[in-house]
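Handoff note, outgoing to incoming analyst
You'll be picking up this chain. Sequence as last confirmed:
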Amino acid sequence: MSPLPDRLVLGGRTGRERRSAVRSRLAMERELVFSAVIEERVYRSPDGRFSVVRATREDTAHEPSVVIVGELSDLGPGEAVRVRGRFERHVSYGLRFRVESFAPVTPHTEVGIARYLGSGLIPGVGAALAQRLVGRFGDKTLDVITKQSARL
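Most recent structure output, in case you need it:
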């Protein structure tokens, strides 16, 4: 008679591995809401509705880089958004976040404002000018641009 194994393995997985897989599956089924900054557009459908973007999550408790997919219209690099949806695992492309809805978010930190202004969304404002503006006006830069443009 052979000795019993140190741990019981059923279906190719230990009990701990099965519990971990179940927790992971449940976490992916749960709806999440988080803020992120778009880093790059990886793909956009010809009709412009469906997009795949790479973004950086603003809550640092999780993996900072995330791939977001869904109907994202004209979101471009540097834009901050609040997204609602679920993580899914695609057979070919791996883990990604499927967006059900999103809303643009105005940046409030100096780093966010500089990234937003320097992203190319505003014609004539590049990274260098964005840094100078934020260096001079700080977190009030967007207010100065929109409400007190004479100060520029």
